[in-house]
């Protein structure tokens, strides 16, 4: 077992900013990340030497991300970065089982920061398992990080401002974007304008994206949903798009067909809470923040002392908030460990809290416009798969719900839902809402999914190799293992 | 859709020369690998999923119960839908696995191993 003072899981905006504060305070934090290079999903870096790596950042967010990654890399000697490293279990007293290509080890930090981020929420609809249907973030990463088009033509659908960014990037990459299909209605968006003006910069950024799409001739369909996708020879051929009511229920008789080979579809994000759950953190359901999240105090400490949760993994609020939250937790931890005095921390905390409060007002307005609507839980047909891993149909899952499978564990035992390799990450966010919709039970009654170690794929062979930790980690920036 | 055992069966999408790369591949730096007994090229540092997509392959496996094709979905390692067989190991996430020279990648059928059984017996 390897002792450490502070371990941060995740090298996205929240994890990087927490690490920078701690490094500056002289603590040499350890940062674990699954990817070859730091940045997280939002600031994911292209492979070294690629064309995309040499291109200048395309917008303000990318510019900011590049600077943050650069600052993080510059702090190299004061931060212990272990990339291509997963945490596959957390045992009592913050003992983390970490694994990578060479084997595994147990690391026990005094303070643990979880900055695990979020993944996209795509509830089931007929045809959603066809190759060519993917998440907006998945499609974005293809063009942004990998310089490969997902297809020739695309519909970008779901809900949230992220769709506008993805549509613009796909179009710029030469993909024929036939439409952006947005669940929210434009009238609601306009109604929230006064509150959105709390962060005028962000509002104008959004308006700019809408203008960009209009200039590119991409139709923006507010108050519409993709209600089905059709395939041919095992690949996506077309999607059905219909107007919907306030609840997100499509008027199928008014559906039109759009021929595309790519559908990028997602209705916002789901916090990755599995490590917080394994650490024993108390959860609460917050629909506005993406579902089940760990309860934290204003500095990010969870119900389990010395376990902190920051960024989207603690409630989806975007990269700007994530970075501030990381900084805040970093300051609190540095103070706790006696590396910063309380006067300095108080002085530095104040502006961060003020900015967070302001951003929350903006976020509240966005959450109202782009809220998850119940109709989305009803898009699946009887034979639509709800659990992609176990190939469980909606009808089969509903039947188990009818027999009392109203929580994750019971439903899993009854139907195998969530028993596959994704461990319920893809199906449960939709299924829990479907259960609520059908039974009227509260989300607190239905509960979150449950994870058991290993929460990352681990082979028996991996478990036979206990790595000599002294040889690891390699210095920050060493990504040779990834290129091998 | 039936899951045929023959290596070059009609899976919807086979490698093609119709590339979807934004910049053409620098052949001198390209990493050569094998997909279903065909030689393909990837850019250095590229994942299997990206290299296959660039070669026009969108279907990566067929499911065990219904034999349905699946491809890249989340592209961040969460959904486990892009599973392929790599050098005889089934259930490898194509979106998380970086191409190495000489890598043997196979479309995964069901839980895998059907086509690599002889290799496992070595």
Any overview of this molecule?
Chain A is α/β, with parallel strands linked by helices and 484 residues long. Chain A has helices at 13-24, 51-54, 60-74, 136-144, 162-172, 186-191, 193-196, 200-215, 274-278, 319-336, 342-369, 394-402, 408-415, 428-439, 443-446, 460-463, 480-483, and strands spanning 2-9, 30-32, 80-82, 86-91, 95-100, 103-114, 118-120, 133-134, 153-158, 176-182, 220-222, 224-232, 235-243, 256-259, 262-266, 269-271, 283-286, 291-294, 307-309, 385-387, 392-393. Chain A has three domains: 2-119 and 270-367, FAD/NAD(P)-binding domain (3-Layer(bba) Sandwich), CATH 3.50.50; 122-267, FAD/NAD(P)-binding domain; 374-446, Arc Repressor Mutant, subunit A (Orthogonal Bundle). In chain A, strand 5 (95-100) and strand 6 form a beta hairpin. The longest helix of chain A has 28 residues, at 342-369. Chain B has 122 residues and is mainly β. In chain B, a hairpin with a 2-residue loop joins strand 5 (83-86) and strand 6. Chains A and B meet through strand 8 and helix 4 of A and helix 1 and strand 4 of B.
Helical content class of chain A? 25-40%
Instruction: Estimate the strand proportion of chain A.
Output: 15-25%
Please report the two chains with the greatest interface, counting residues with C-beta closer than 8 angstroms to the partner's C-beta: A-B, 48 and 46 residues
Fraction of residues of chain B in helices?
Answer: under 10%
* Outline of chain B: globular
What's the mean pLDDT score of chain B?
Answer: 83
CATH superfamily of the largest domain in chain A: FAD/NAD(P)-binding domain
Number of domains of chain A: 3
Averaged pLDDT of chain A: 92
Helix-strand makeup class of chain A:
alpha/beta
* Rg from Cα of chain A: 22 Å
CATH-defined fold name of the largest domain in chain A:
FAD/NAD(P)-binding domain
Assembly annotation: heterodimer
Q: What is the count of helical runs of chain A?
A: 17
Task: Specify the biggest β-sheet of chain B.
Answer: 7 strands, mixed
Could you name the ranges of chain B where pLDDT drops below 50 across 5 or more consecutive residues?
1-13, 115-122
- Gap between N and C termini of chain B: 32 Å
């Amino acid at each position: 077992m390897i002792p450490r003072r502070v371990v941060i899981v995740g090298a996205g905006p929240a994890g990087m900013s927490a690490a920078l504060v701690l490094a500056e305070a002289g603590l040499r934090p350890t940062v674990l990340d699954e990817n070859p290079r730091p940045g997280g999903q939002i600031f994911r870096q292209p492979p070294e030497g690629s064309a995309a790596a040499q291109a200048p950042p395309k917008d303000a967010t990318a510019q900011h991300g590049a600077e943050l990654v650069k600052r993080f890399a510059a702090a190299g000697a004061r931060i212990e970065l272990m990339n291509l490293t997963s945490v596959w279990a957390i045992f009592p007293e913050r003992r983390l089982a970490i694994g990578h290509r060479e084997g595994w080890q147990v690391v026990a930090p005094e303070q643990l920061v979880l900055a695990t981020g979020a993944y996209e929420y795509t509830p089931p609809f007929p045809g959603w398992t066809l190759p060519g249907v993917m998440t907006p973030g998945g499609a974005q990463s293809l063009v942004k990080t990998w310089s490969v088009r997902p297809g020739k033509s695309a519909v970008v659908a779901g809900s949230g401002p992220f769709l506008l960014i993805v549509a613009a990037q796909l179009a710029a990459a030469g993909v024929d974007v036939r439409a952006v299909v947005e669940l929210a209605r434009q009238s609601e968006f306009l109604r929230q304008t006064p509150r959105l003006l709390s962060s005028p910069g962000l509002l104008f950024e959004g308006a700019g994206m809408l203008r960009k799409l209009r200039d590119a001739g991409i139709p923006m369909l507010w108050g519409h949903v993709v209600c089905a996708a059709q395939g041919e020879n095992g690949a996506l051929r077309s999607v059905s798009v219909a107007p919907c009511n306030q609840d997100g229920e499509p008027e199928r008789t008014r559906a039109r067909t759009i021929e595309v080979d790519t559908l990028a579809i997602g209705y916002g994000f789901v916090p990755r809470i599995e490590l917080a759950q394994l650490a024993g953190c108390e959860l609460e359901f917050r629909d506005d923040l993406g579902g089940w999240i760990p309860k934290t105090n204003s500095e990010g400490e969870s119900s389990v002392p010395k376990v902190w949760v920051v960024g989207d993994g603690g409630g989806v609020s975007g990269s700007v908030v994530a970075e501030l939250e990381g900084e805040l937790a970093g300051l609190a931890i540095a103070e706790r460990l006696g590396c910063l005095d309380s006067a300095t921390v108080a002085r530095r905390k104040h502006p961060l809290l003020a900015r967070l409060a302001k951003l929350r007002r903006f976020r509240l307005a966005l959450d109202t416009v782009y809220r998850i609507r119940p109709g989305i839980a009803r898009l699946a047909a009887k034979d639509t798969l709800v659990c992609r891993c176990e190939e469980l149909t909606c009808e089969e899952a509903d039947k188990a719900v009818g027999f009392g499978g109203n929580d994750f564990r019971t439903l899993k035992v009854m139907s195998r839902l969530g028993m596959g390799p994704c461990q319920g990450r893809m199906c449960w966010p939709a299924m829990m809402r479907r259960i609520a919709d059908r039974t009227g039970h509260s989300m607190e009654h239905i509960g979150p999914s449950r994870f058991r170690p290993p929460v990352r794929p681990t082979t028996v062979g991996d478990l036979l190799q206990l790595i000599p930790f002294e040889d690891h980690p390699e210095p920050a920036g060493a990504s040779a293992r990834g290129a091998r | 859709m039936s899951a045929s055992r023959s290596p070059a069966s009609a899976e919807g999408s086979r490698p093609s020369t119709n590339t979807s790369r934004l910049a053409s591949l620098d052949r001198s730096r390209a990493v050569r690998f094998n997909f279903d007994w065909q030689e393909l090229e990837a850019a250095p540092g590229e994942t299997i999923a990206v290299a296959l997509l660039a070669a026009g392959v969108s279907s990566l496996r067929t499911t065990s119960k219904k034999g349905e094709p699946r491809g890249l979905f989340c592209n961040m390692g969460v959904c486990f839908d892009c599973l392929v067989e790599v050098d005889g190991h089934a259930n490898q996430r194509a979106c998380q696995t970086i191409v190495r020279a000489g890598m043997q990648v196979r479309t995964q059928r069901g839980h895998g191993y059907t086509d690599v059984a002889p290799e496992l017996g070595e």
